[in-house]
Amino acid sequence: MAFDLDAFLQRELATPTTKSRRRTKQESGRASRKQARTRQTLRAVGGYSNLQSAIYAPADTPLCVVVPHNTGWLPDGRPRRDPR
C-alpha cells in the first residue's frame, strides 16, 4: 500500500493545533479556584455551598444571606450589618 499524501494532509489539517478557550481555562485552574472561593464565602456567611446541603437544611434556616454591596464584610468574613 502506497503512502497517500492527500489523505495524510487532510487528517493533519483537520486536527486542531491550538487549544480551545474552554480547555485553556480548565487547565489553568482559574474556574476551580473561583468556585472554591464562592463556596468558602457562602459558608462564611451562613449559606450553603452546594445544592444537597441546601435541600437537607432545616426548614427554618435561610438558604442564603444577601449583603448589600455598600455594607461590605468584616475582616473575619462575616457580613457587616451596619451601612458605612
Q: Over all CA atoms, what is the radius of gyration? A: 24 Å
Give me the strand/helix succession.
HHHH
Largest sheet, strands/sense/barrel: none
Oligomer class: single chain
- Would you count the extended β strands for me? 0
Strand fraction band? under 5%
Mean pLDDT: 76
Give the helix level as a range of percent.
40-55%
Quote the distance from N terminus to C terminus. Answer: 80 Å
Low-confidence stretches: none
Secondary-structure-derived class:
mainly alpha
Tally of DSSP helical segments = 4
**Outline, from the CA principal axes?**
elongated
Structure description:
With 84 residues, the protein is mainly alpha-helical. The protein has a domain at 21-77. It has helices spanning 5-14, 21-28, 30-44, 51-55. It is elongated. The termini are far apart.
Sum up the structure in keywords.
elongated
Question: What is the compact description of this entry?
Answer:
With 84 residues, this protein is an all-alpha fold.
Write the layout of secondary structure elements.
Elements: H1 5-14, H2 21-28, H3 30-44, H4 51-55
